Structure formats: structure tokens, C-alpha cells
Write the C-alpha cells for this entry.
Amino acid sequence: MPFPTYWLRDNCPCTDCRDPRNGQKLFQITDLPADLAITAQHEQNGHLEVLWSDGHRSRYELARLAEPAAGDGRTEADKRLWEAADFTAGIPEADWDAYLGDPAERVAVLSAVRRSGFAVLRAVPAVDRQVLEVARTLGFVRETNYGELFDVRVEAAPNNLAFTSAVIAPHTDNPYRDPVPTLQLLHCLANSATGGDSGLVDGFRAAAILRAEAPEEFALLTRTPVPFVFRDRNTELRAERPLIEVDSLGRIREVRFNNRSIGTLRLPDPAAAQAFYAAYRRFAEITLRPELRLEFRLGPGDCLIFDNVRLLHARTAFEQDGSRHLQGCYADLDGLFSTLAVLERRGAALDAIAELFEGEGASEYLGEAVTMAEHMLQAGALAEAAGAPAHLVAAALLHDVGHFGGSGLDLMKGRDNRHSERGAEWLAQWFGPAVTEPIRLHVAAKRYLCAVEPGYRARLSEASEYTLGVQGGPMTEQQAAAFAARPGALDAVAVRRWDEEAKYADAGTPGFGHFRPLLAALMG
């Protein structure tokens, strides 16, 4: 398909146009010639190659060029709009320890917040300030005039109705702040009072109902700035924003709804004010429809995470016949989305590595009695059994990924495939030097051991003896001294020893899935 000229050049992926570390562009749009044109182009092996009129060459993956536009995850287009009955089978939740220990569980929780607007973590330690630790697993704490955290309990002189035992109608927090905190966490420390149940309403769903039932009133609420105000002795905050915010395509993007915080709305004429209040009332009535309200009770150790510019949260009144104490804090969706994207990216990387073990890994390993996958899994298991630290278990497990792609055959034909360097460079996309350097040096470590350790060479397998010659043979005394002085040399030697030992058929080693949590924890 044809692509617009400047769009195509603006998206050139080469290292002259983009920083390879962060993908940021290295040129301004005004740096491109005003008469920029394509002088030649052709497709080959799934790529589009372009020669530009200014002499620049670009190479694009056709699959990447054809990808659909990706939103930022903030509008109704990327959400699951819901009513209470949609959670008859249960609300999105996870155990705290599983959330911490299993990246897939954390992805599930954060995805639920992105898609449905909320999730609950169970069995979070019910201790002071723990809510901050929860927030830091998914982003950054947003400090406000309430502090980095706030206590939701009855206070003698409250500056907010939340700090009383009164009923709290569905609302969003901090509408008087711009930018508003887009994420809120509430962690239950105690809840033995009668009443005080929590409620959630999908504000996007309520707004969508208003749009369907009264489109003119919906439009009015999207274009009328509403003054939100908060003040106490030490603070005065103001923001003018519509109750329902839409993007340039008309998609619902944000809801600010808090009756307690609306200031005096001054419109140019009484008719405009009358129309606004009619629309405002209709929207409020929709948010109170019983079928929209999801109710549940937070118990000690439960932590609710929710989207504060989408979901309206509420509370039933409670008796002061027991203790009710929640601790809350604010964070932001961009932090959660970032954490989720990185976790998903790492998950995709682990999937790709797993596919190598399951696919090419089933092929023979350079004439040995094991497959490539069996060899690497044995090496990882040997490192684990030896009590090696996680980074060395990972290095032992992954040390030969550079052989994948058919390069192992080159080595057996007498051509050094430099698999240790290739593997280390590929893995450096996700792992730090503690993992990649022992892999980079494990071939050099064989040459080193053959030079300095009597009897080591005699224990090499026939195939390993052959590849030793292809890879340069034993080191000289000077080379060995230089190798021993390199950072990571000892780790590389350890990996090398497990490498040589991991060549037994039917050794009964665990599969790749056994090592996956360890690898996930090391990615960064």
C-alpha cells in the first residue's frame, strides 16, 4: 500500500534517524527537504527498502508499517464498559503474594485496572503505610495536600466528608485539581463497623447511557466547563473542566463527578443554566441506578485499586460501633500503563525464548547426545542445584542461545559463529551484564581453562574438542592472564563448567517454564 512521503520518512527506524537505546528521533521535521521525494523503492523478504531524494536510505518491516493505530488506553474505545451484573462470577482480584511473585498475575491485575477500571488485592499486610508499597509496584505515589497517604476514618474536625461516617454518593476524587490524580488506592486496615460497604459505578458506562438516551444533554456536559473548588485553612484548589471529557474523535476520556466540590457555575443566561442543570441532574440520576452500582465489603488486608477519572466510588453510611480504617493514596495511570507495558514486553520476550527452546531447541546439539534445549536446561539445572545466584542460573540456562538461527551448523563446518557474542548481544535487550557477560565470555572461559587447568582439556567431549580448535584453541599464558583480570571472568568459568557437564541424555531436567519466574525477575 502507498504511504505518505513525510510520514514514511518521519518513521524511518535506522540509527541515523533514531537513538537505538530509546527510539527517540534525532532530527526535526524541518530538517527534511521541502521537496523530499522517493527516488526508488522495492520490497524484499518482508521489508520495504526506500532510497530518498536526499540520498538517505530507509528499511522498514512491512508488518510494522501495516500495524493499526494504537490508542493510549485512556478512552472508552479501550475499555470494557460494565454494569454490576457483569461481575456475578466475581470481581477481578489476586492474592498479594501471587501478585508480587508471578509476573503473569501482576499483568492480569494491572490489565483489569486498565480494561475494567479496578481490581482488588487480597491478603495485603494490614499494616501502616503498606498502601504506599502497593502503589510503588505499579507506578509512583502522587503527593497532594492530604500528604503522600491519607487515613479514611472518622475525625473530630474533618476537612472532607470522607472523614466522617456519613453516606458518600458515587463520585470521583480531587476534581478541583488539574491534573487530577488518575489512580486511587484504598487499603483496609480495619472494618468491624456496621455498614461502610464500598461501591463502584462505571462512569464511562453512565456517560454512554446518557449519550444514548439524551445526546444533546450529553453534548452539553462535554462542552460546559464546571468550576470545582476545595479550600480549607491551608489549601485552595480550583479547576474548570467539564463533567464528561471527550477526545477529538468524540470518545469518552474522563469523568469528573463530585457534587460536594462543584463551585458556583455562572453561565451567560438563565436558559443556559437551566439546560445545564437539567443535563447534570439526568446524569446524576443515571449514576444512581441500582443496576450500575457494584457493592462489596473491604476487609482487613484488602486493597482496592481503581481508575479515578473513570470509576465513581461510593460508601454506605456506617455506625460507630466498631473500627473502620482505610489508608489511601493517589498515583497515576501513566505509571500503571508503563509498568504493564514493560511486563507485557518482557512476557513477549520470554515467550520468544521459550519458542526457541521448544522449536529449534529440539534439534541436535553439535553432535552431542542431547538436543540444544536439553543441554541448556541441564546447565541451568546444574547451576540451580549448586546454589548459584539467580543471574548465574540464567546465564547457564541461556548460554547457547547464540547457536539458534542455524549458526551452530556453521561452527561444526569449521567457521566460528561467535555464538557467545551473538547470544549476549541479543539477550542484552532484556538482561543486564550480570547475565550477559558470563554468556559473552563462556567460550573464552573454555580456552582459558584448557590453558590453566591440568586435565581439563582431556575431559572435553569430541565435539567440544573440535569446536575448541575452531574458536582459537587454548589461550596463551598472556591471554589467560588478561582473561582472568576481566570483570565477570569467574562467573564465566562457572558457566563453562556447567556447560561441559550438561551433555547427558535422559537427565530428567525441568522444562523452560520452571525457570521462567527467575528470568522474569532478572529482566530490566
Summary: The chain has a mean pLDDT of 92.
